[in-house]
Specification:
heterodimer, A: alpha+beta, Ubiquitin-like (UB roll), Alpha-Beta Plaits, Rossmann fold, eight-stranded mixed β-sheet, 26 strands, 21% helix, B: alpha/beta, de novo design (two linked rop proteins), 3 domains, four-stranded parallel β-sheet, 17 helices, 11 strands, 13% strand
Chain lengths: 537, 430
């Protein structure tokens, strides 16, 4: 528990009979979570202030006259806490019954069902039958603007959403109106969440189905979704996310906690840019040959032919890469380019005019670079070219007469003439593209959502992601394809695991030395040297 | 606007001047010995003032009955942050109308009390938070404050002492919960009037996170007299643990309802039968709520031996609270009265804490159903159980207050509930 090398003062408390040493100033709830004891709660959220108003986290503290809200009660030395005592359980059961008084119990049509804290808590600790015979209060539904829909009757009034807008977005667009049992969350008249940049987080932190995403509405049941830890590919912040997938389709992106990068939050810009991961128009098999002679083939065949082509080619090698590719993809590409005596690669990447920061956690910004791995590409010696909209900069590549390798850039601003003069044009991509018409080899590669790997974010944090959906057809990770070619050129066995491809990075750029793929974990690690590159990323 | 009733058994210390328009003016107040207490306070210094108030044993008149001098002594040494005195004049407890009269008739008494209190705790600014509906009262106080400013009692360099104390009036917007001290602070800061979690207590971090003391109008109105006459002088009235006099707001089915200032420890039956002229129309007494809407209800046998001091009423199973005695005779429909009380709390709940937000409404609905003749005996058990769930489980005590009359009335008037549930028998309209 040491921070900045200073030893923190600790106190010893007993929670449910277990003695535990916790830092002074921690709350009972935090101390309990530390030893795996979950105290039910709604209003408390680790990223927000605690108003202690849901009254669900009440626990018995020996010596205290009343049950204490564990979310705000600090631990004291020698304190004895019972989270499961008869008194505490009875009180929680009572509070849960209050929550159900006006709850519509519309779980069958509620998006939160399956990941709902009201369901969970009532199932675990609630009464079997409610005693209320009174009619239920009805608030109905409200469009909060942006992607957020509000079901007032499901609300438990924890005010997490109000506090998120107050404390994090610092634009109090939500508030509680009226009081008592008439109180309800609302926007300011017609001014909803449409202008907010981080409003999607209120849906994430809503413990019940009161705030739901319009985009996700009735799209999938929570229990059908697979959760895969990943990194948001939509800017260079490198927010930790989860891909929620069903039937090999990404259904939504959710933030994953990482205090070093994005805390508990992600921006709406990143959150809503996932549809491309589900694109159906994919290259599914290696294509060999130009124009009318083009044929689909297997990898073995394609690589044999390509290898022969590479060995026979006389012209210089020119490479166009992409900053959306992983460190492993780019590292293997760089090594191959080197082996072919090629020049340094170039890449293009879109760049926004400004950043959008989350005031309550200012380190989290939608960065100007709208690609996940510009830092990785530059560390590996690649040079950014072209305009801020991601176009241009390829005049030389377009008319290159030697060997031309394109990795991961769909080249939307180019036509069939691109690479037509090349002696050998290899296009590694995921999607059919007009600019691949002249290619001698079109090799299908996976997207980041279909493969394992790492990105290097704006500050040089190397973070892992995992495959959430299966690759279509014969698409393979670029590092695997390029690694096979490289291994043949070097006369050795190819890499078969991303860790091996990652292991090469240290020899290509000193910054990666000392980093081990296996120890990056889910939180990532900073590159070990100050970044050489200048700029505001 | 005269003052309706008085009685010879009254000891009128702070209510002297009720009904006398002259007492409202600065000259009138000075003729009654006004602002002598302030001069005395400036002589003896802040710690001298606190000692005098401690010696008097004066207990907070807002309802909780915490010793006022001790409360003041909780204030920390002067630090970086300013100290504040807040005067709680958001009197909105059903059945309570003492602070309004104190301000209406003796505004300078309150102003002097605020000045002395501010001086004692080292505050240079005092806010008086007035209930929104107190229209005339606010005007009277504002006029008096203007006079006091002009005469140099308030503002910079008070009476040449070098002490600066400003007083600001703030009118609330009509929410009962803003009378809860931390809700009041939030409201005064311009936020929603939501009670705050304690700790931190106001003396540590209150109004704008600064050391703050909050006193009731009546408490502060007593203070000038303690300085003028000495703390010990106050102990000649009342009991050992509840010294002094208290304004009793008597309402309901008595012949002469009104404010009566009596020594604490005064027998309840004597208050009802003698001071207030007995029950109206020669009816029988049925029930009493002794301390405003938020305390347990008492039946006749509870009342017989009850003495009106903090300990005496507690012994009888209720609380003195702010001494708002609501008297009900035999014609009273207890179920209806309790439903109306609970409905009030349900309407005024701030809505933060789940047990209060949902519980007060649920109580109201069950009680309404019983009142309509659609209740079951099981409902009574549910009501009692809910009362338990709502007691001691919330940030402030509004939830407890709503539960108190329900539980006590079922305990003491179960027959009346049962008669309504089983046979539809209803006590006459009241």
């Amino acid at each position: 528990m040491a921070e900045n090398g200073q030893t923190q003062e600790t106190v010893t408390v007993t929670i449910d009979g277990r003695e535990v040493e916790v830092p002074k100033g921690a709350t009972i709830l935090e101390a309990a979570e530390g030893i795996g004891t979950r105290v039910p709660h709604y209003c408390y959220h680790p990223g927000l202030s605690a108003p202690a108003q849901c009254r669900l986290c009440l626990v018995e503290v020996e010596g205290a006259p009343k049950l204490q809200p564990s979310c705000v009660t600090p631990v004291r030395d020698g304190q004895v806490v019972h989270t499961e005592s008869e008194k505490a359980l009875q009180m929680r059961q009572g509070v849960l019954e209050f929550y159900l008084l006006n709850h519509p119990l519309d779980c069958p049509i509620c998006d939160q069902s399956g990941e709902c804290k009201l369901q969970d808590y009532v199932f675990a600790e609630g009464r079997k039958h409610g005693r209320s015979r009174e009619p239920k209060r009805v608030f109905g539904r409200d469009d909060f603007g942006g992607d957020v829909l509000f079901y007032g009757d499901r609300c438990v009034m924890c005010t997490r959403c109000v506090r998120f807008m107050d404390e994090m977005e610092q634009e109090p667009l939500l508030t509680v109106v009226e009081r008592g049992s008439r109180s309800v969350i609302d926007t300011f008249f017609d001014r909803g969440l449409a202008d907010a940049s981080f409003a999607g987080n209120v849906v994430d932190i809503c413990p019940v189905g009161a705030l739901v995403s319009k985009d996700f509405l009735h799209k999938a049941r929570a229990w059908d979704l697979d959760h895969t830890p990943s990194i948001c590919p939509n800017c260079s912040q490198g927010c930790n996310i989860e891909l929620h997938t069903r039937d090999d389709l990404v259904q939504r992106l959710k933030p994953r906690e990482n205090q070093d990068v994005n805390a508990h939050w992600i921006c709406d810009y990143g959150r809503h840019r996932y549809e491309w991961m589900n694109r159906g128009d994919r290259i599914e098999a290696p294509l060999v040959g130009r124009g009318g002679g083009r044929r689909a083939t297997g990898w073995q065949d394609a690589l044999e032919v390509l290898l022969a082509g590479l060995e026979g080619a006389a012209g210089p090698v020119r490479v166009v890469a992409s900053a959306s590719a992983s460190n492993e993809d780019l590292g293997t590409l760089a090594a191959l380019t080197h082996a072919l005596n090629g020049e340094g690669a170039v890449f293009r990447s879109p760049r926004a005019a400004d950043e959008v920061a989350l005031p309550g956690f200012p380190k989290l910004k939608r960065r100007r670079d709208l690609v996940p791995n510009r830092t990785g590409a530059e560390l590996l010696g690649m040079e950014r070219v072209g305009e801020d909209d991601g176009s241009g900069g390829l005049t030389e590549a377009r008319d290159h007469e030697g060997v031309l390798i394109v990795l991961g850039d769909e080249l939307p601003d180019q036509d069939g003439e691109f690479g037509a003069r090349a002696e050998l044009y290899v296009h590694l991509g995921s999607y059919p593209s007009a600019a691949a018409q002249a290619a001698d080899f079109v090799l299908p590669i996976t997207t980041f959502a279909e493969q394992e790997g790492t990105f290097t974010n704006f500050e040089g944090r190397v973070q892992r992601f995992w495959p959430g959906v299966r690759a279509p057809g014969a698409a393979r990770p670029a590092w695997l394809v390029l690694g096979a070619l490289l291994a043949r050129l070097e006369g050795r066995a190819p890499e078969t695991r991303p860790a091996e491809a990652f292991g090469r990075l240290g020899s290509l750029a000193a910054e990666f030395q000392g980093l081990a793929y296996e120890t990056l974990g889910t939180r990532g690690a900073l590159v070990n040297e100050p970044l050489r590159i200048a700029g505001d990323r | 606007m005269g003052y309706p009733y008085s009685h010879e058994k009254e000891v009128r210390l702070i209510s002297r001047g009720f009904g006398d328009p002259a007492a409202r003016t600065l000259d009138g107040w000075k003729a009654m010995g006004g602002y002598e207490g302030l001069e005395k306070a400036l002589e003896v210094g802040p710690s001298g003032v606190i000692d005098e108030v401690k010696a008097s044993g004066l207990r907070g008149r807002g309802g909780a009955g915490f010793p006022a001098g001790v409360k003041w002594s909780f204030m920390p040494e002067k630090g970086e942050r300013p100290h504040y005195l807040l005067c709680n004049a958001d009197e909105s407890e059903p059945g309570t109308f003492k602070d309004r009269e104190l301000i209406r008739w003796l505004p300078h008494q309150l102003i002097e009390g605020c000045l002395i209190g501010s001086y004692a705790i080292g505050a240079e600014h005092c806010y008086i938070y007035l209930r929104g509906e107190f229209f005339e009262t606010t005007q009277v106080l504002a006029r008096a404050l203007e006079e006091a400013y002009a005469a140099g009692y308030v503002g910079e360099n008070i009476l040449g002492s070098g002490v600066t104390i400003d007083i600001t009036l703030h009118v609330g917007a009509g929410a009962y919960i803003c009378g809860e001290e931390t809700g009041l602070m939030n409201s005064l800061e311009g936020r929603r009037g939501l009670p705050r979690v304690k700790p931190p207590f106001p003396a540590a971090a209150g109004f704008f996170k600064s050391p703050t003391t909050i006193n009731n109008v009546e408490t502060l109105s007593v203070v000038p007299h303690l300085l003028t006459n000495g703390g010990e002088w106050y102990r000649q009235w009342g009991t050992e643990k509840s010294p002094g006099t208290k304004l009793f707001c008597v309402s309901g089915h008595v012949r002469k309802p009104g404010n009566y200032e009596l020594p604490l420890g005064f027998p309840m039956m004597e208050l009802i039968e003698d001071v207030c002229g007995g029950i109206r129309d020669g009816n029988e007494l049925k029930a009493v709520i002794p301390g405003g809407a938020s305390v347990p209800i008492m039946n006749v046998s509870d009342c017989l031996e009850c003495s009106l001091d903090y300990e005496g009423v507690a012994k009888a199973g209720s609380m003195l609270g702010c001494a708002s005695v609501i008297v009900m005779d035999e014609t009273t429909d207890i179920v209806k009265q309790v439903r109306r009380l609970v409905q009030f709390f349900s309407h005024e709940s701030c809505g933060q804490c789940t047990p209060c937000r949902e519980g007060t409404t649920w109580l109201t609905r069950i009680l309404s159903r019983i009142e309509d003749g659609r209740g079951t005996e099981q409902d009574l058990d549910t009501l009692l159980d809910l009362g338990e769930q709502m007691t001691g489980t919330t940030i402030c005590v509004l939830s407890d207050s709503a539960a108190a009359p329900v539980a006590s009335s079922i305990q003491k008037f179960r027959d009346e509930y049962l008669a309504l549930i089983r046979r539809g028998e209803r006590v006459g309209a009241a």
